[in-house]
Specification:
Strand content of chain B: 25-35%
Largest interface: A-B, 24 and 24 residues
Number of strands of chain A: 7
Structural class of chain A: alpha+beta
Strand content of chain A: 25-35%
Helix content of chain B: 25-40%
Strand order of the largest sheet of chain A: 1-2-3-4-5-7-6
Largest sheet of chain A: 7 strands, mixed
Largest sheet of chain B: 7 strands, mixed
Order of helices and strands of chain B: HEHHHEEEHEHEE
Order of helices and strands of chain A: HEHHHEEEHEHEE
Oligomer: heterodimer
Shape of chain B: globular
Number of strands of chain B: 7
Radius of gyration of chain A: 16 Å
Chain lengths: ~190, ~180
């Protein structure tokens, strides 16, 4: 599966599109317009808990209030330009500090190229590398979101089960698939 | 079906009417019977109680204000307790988590199973219309508790690896759930 992805990326790079160097870096207030490109897109937000952003001011407030102080929040960049976001939560309560939740969103024009998969892999490796108490990164995906489930499988997460009517997303109670990767999981 | 026969036998034996009611400060001595027992708290996140004052503080501070906490009573006497949490965040209010403990002298008689069935019926029964899912997280080695939930009509959804911290160690846990829409089993 990974070999297929690499073959797909080579033709696109040679075709003169924006290319394929994927990197993660902290998101800043000056990224707000790039942020709006994915965070304002209803297709991107469809299975997420957030509503698409319509106001630049709301986006700035979110970046300032939530993203900047976040323990691990990164812009997913293609050739240095933010096209999405990835984050891993940190729980303060000692009983839950060994666990973090992965989330990500990618501008719809960049779907289907393995970008989210690579970003998820990198983010999880960085989170495990930087936080010795972190043993488990989990991700919960709405059952209809097949694309995101594939991202996690390719990123080396194990599918643990279907949690029925687990959470309300966009006004409806949803079944969510729970995935996890452990700090002790072998590279896959 | 087996359980109903067991309950009838218990009733005829002079004990066996299981009921739920709020736990009170005056129940502290009964509470201490199960809460001080290392066998009972083996798979609980808390250590056995050693002090009556600590128990009173826990009942006053955590149990009395709890949205749903009940004593499991046998012929009117508390022999264990159970609770179902309530989540305040709008997206999570559809779900509550069940926990229960039972004095070890009362194990193996279907009491926890019956208490869980009664509690689930109560929380789904109208007090919390937004509640759609009751879940329970059980240590993979706690087979007795897994059987309680299966008999109480919960569905096993999967094993969550290193999901919770039990007395300083991370543990794999089985996730169970019962929905307000599940048929009686």
């Amino acid at each position: 599966m990974e070999e297929q992805e690499q073959e797909q990326q080579t033709p696109r790079t040679s075709g003169g599109s924006t290319g394929g160097v994927i990197s993660l870096r902290p998101l800043t207030l000056s990224d707000v317009d790039d942020f709006m490109a994915w965070a304002g897109d209803p297709d991107v937000a469809r299975f997420c808990r957030f509503e698409p952003y319509v106001s630049r001011d709301d986006a700035l407030a979110y970046i300032a209030g939530t993203i900047l102080p976040h323990p691990y929040f990164r812009a997913i960049c293609v050739d240095g330009r933010p096209v999405g976001q990835v984050s891993v939560t940190r729980n303060e309560a000692p009983a839950d500090a060994h666990r973090g939740e992965l989330g990500y969103a990618l501008a719809s024009g960049y779907w289907g190229r393995g970008i989210a998969t690579e970003a998820a892999r990198t983010a999880v490796a960085e989170a495990f590398g930087g936080r010795p108490e972190l043993e488990r990164v989990e991700a919960m995906v709405v059952v209809e979101n097949a694309a995101s489930q594939r991202v996690l499988e390719k990123a080396g997460f194990a599918r643990e089960g279907l949690l029925r009517k687990y959470q309300k997303v966009k006004g409806k109670t949803r079944d969510l698939v729970v995935f996890s990767r452990l700090s002790t999981d072998a590279d896959s | 079906m087996e359980e109903q026969k067991q309950q009838t036998a218990h009733t005829s034996g002079g004990s066996g009417v299981i009921s739920l009611r709020p736990l009170q400060l005056s129940d502290v001595d009964d509470f201490m019977v199960w809460a001080t027992d290392p066998d009972v708290v083996r798979f609980c996140t808390w250590e056995p109680y050693t002090s009556r004052d600590d128990a009173l503080a826990y009942i006053a501070g955590t149990i009395l204000p709890h949205p749903y906490c009940r004593a499991i009573c046998l012929d009117g006497r508390p022999v264990g307790s159970l609770s179902v949490t309530r989540n305040e965040a709008a997206g999570d209010a559809c779900r509550g988590e069940l926990g229960y403990v039972l004095g070890s002298g009362y194990w193996g008689r279907g009491i926890a199973t019956e208490a869980v069935k009664m509690a689930v019926a109560e929380v789904f029964g109208g007090a919390r219309p937004e509640l759609e899912r009751v879940q329970a997280v059980v240590d993979v080695e706690n087979e007795a508790s897994q059987r309680v939930l299966e008999k109480a009509g919960f569905r096993r959804e999967g094993v969550m690896r290193k999901y919770f911290m039990l007395k300083g160690r991370t543990r794999d846990a089985v996730m169970f759930s019962r929905l307000s829409t599940d048929d009686d089993s």
